[in-house]
Amino acid sequence: METNKPGRGFWVTTAILAVISIAGVLYFWLMPSVEPWLPPEGGHPGDQVDWLFRFMSSTAAVLYTFVVGYVIYFAIAYRLRRSDPPDALGVQVHDNAKLEIAWTVVPTLFVILLSILSIKIWYVLQIQPTNGLVVESIGRQWYFTFRYPNVNGEVTDAMHLPVNMPVTLNLTSNDVIHSFWVPDMRLKADMIPGMINTIRFTPTRVGRYQIICTEFCGTGHSTMDKQTMVVQSMPAYLAWYHDWQQRNAHVSNAIPTVSSGAISLAGGDAAAGRTLFSQKCSACHALGPFEQRIVGPGLRGVLHDESHPELVDGDEATPADVAKILQNGYTGSMGHMPNQAENGLSNNDIANLVAFLNTLK
Ligand code: HEC
Ligand SMILES: [Cu+2]
User: Rounded CA gap, 95 and 18, in Å?
Assistant: First the structure.
């Protein structure tokens, strides 16, 4: 007589699946030493995020192994055999209250457990107030800028932080949706125009960590991975901080607007313009010939190229006309050149940039 009691094959299969599951669990817990495909975590709660990741992955490894393993085993063990009549029916089983309660209650409890563990970490990451440093980061096409307490204007090079100091990071965007991602810190949050997303963390390891935009934000999106989060000792951080305080001492904190009237170009500083260019323009402009396009044209010959006596807007190539394009922007056949407000430029920045562009022969 046929029976639905599991036989020897079932228990052998169970033993094999148990061994595979244990290997899966061990893999996820020992992974950093087995095969480090995640960078070592650089801060808190990145360590907790990793713990949760391992916990979820190892549990999923066990579930997956048993579900798929049994499906394959049963498909083979209870297949239609050649000796069976073609209309043979398998053993018909109806209702097993104990089993059904178990497979409802156990996963439910488990999902609740996962929610509790996730919410605890989310609370630390987004809600729990901390003392320490408050930094703002603003996503722009196609770079990030940073604001620090008591530093005027924006820091444009990198995001510096002292090690072991809690940080509250407020994120927003100047134009389209970007997403701020620091894989080493296990931090990721969208930067949305008109909205502030807050994340809190404490870097615990000195080093340089890549900041990547992970939301497609236009043609230059793929270049938005050049800036870093620099975690350093307190003295080194303070030296950098005081340097930026001085550097930006005369920068206005007002939200940049498009100024009215012509901008005075007197006293433009080409060296300052070069630095600014690498931060705010090089995503769209190469310093090569006009034909060398990224988004906009190459700018090497913009003021001294006989073969291009006119600017894209049809005006003569003079410093005042270049300044006018930087001030008002220009949309032509190549696309959109952002205006002064969109590029976050002060009048002084424009004078510096024009002085720099004038040095390119
Ligand atoms: C988002 C991309 C983008 C950014 C950022 C950008 N530009 Fe442009 N720029 C353009 C485009 C596109 C054009 C050409 C517009 C057209 O004619 O269609 C242009 C045109 C120009 C021109 C005119 C060139 C010519 O030969 O007539 C100058 C000068 C210029 N940009 C300077 C700058 C400077 C300086 C910065 C940095 C503050 C900057 N741009 C930032 C996209 C950009
Ligand atoms: Cu972006």
Answer: 27
Ligand positioned closest to the Cα atom of 275: 1
User: Which protein residue's CA is at the shortest distance from atom 8 of ligand 1?
Assistant: 337
pLDDT digits (tens, 9 = 90+) for 227-262: 999 999 999 999 999 999 998 888 777 777 888 888
Question: 232 and 206 in contact (C-beta within 8 Å)?
Answer: yes
Nearest Cα residue to atom 29 of ligand 1? 322
pLDDT recorded at residue 1 = 40
Q: Which residues line ligand 1 (CB under 6 A)?
A: 141, 277, 280-281, 283-285, 290, 295-297, 299, 302, 311-312, 322, 325-326, 330, 332-338, 343, 345, 353
Residue 67: domain span? 8-81+96-127
Do residues 137 and 123 share a domain?
A: no
Q: Is residue 115 part of a domain?
A: yes
Q: How far is the CA of 359 from the centre of ligand 1 (A)?
A: 17
Please tell me whether residues 12 and 75 are part of one structural domain.
yes
- Rounded to the nearest whole angstrom, what is the distance from the C-alpha of residue 223 to the centroid of ligand 1? 17
Calculate mean pLDDT across residues 173-198: 94
Confidence of residue 3 (pLDDT cuts 50, 70, 90): low
Domain count, the chain: 3
289 in the same domain as 184: no
Peptide bond before residue 142 is cis, with ω within 30 degrees of 0: yes
Residue 193 covered by a domain: yes
* Alpha-carbon separation of residue 160 from 24, 189, 248, 268 (angstroms): 39, 19, 16, 28
134 CA distance to ligand 2 centroid (A)? 22
Ligand 1 mean position to 75 CA, how many Å?
64
| Same domain flag for 243 and 287 | no
The order of strands in the sheet holding 178-182 is: 187-191, 178-182, 212-213
Ligand 2 centroid, distance to 237 Cα (angstroms): 26
Contact assessment for residue 340 and residue 256, using Cβ atoms and an 8 Å cutoff? yes
Give me the pLDDT at residue 26, please.
92
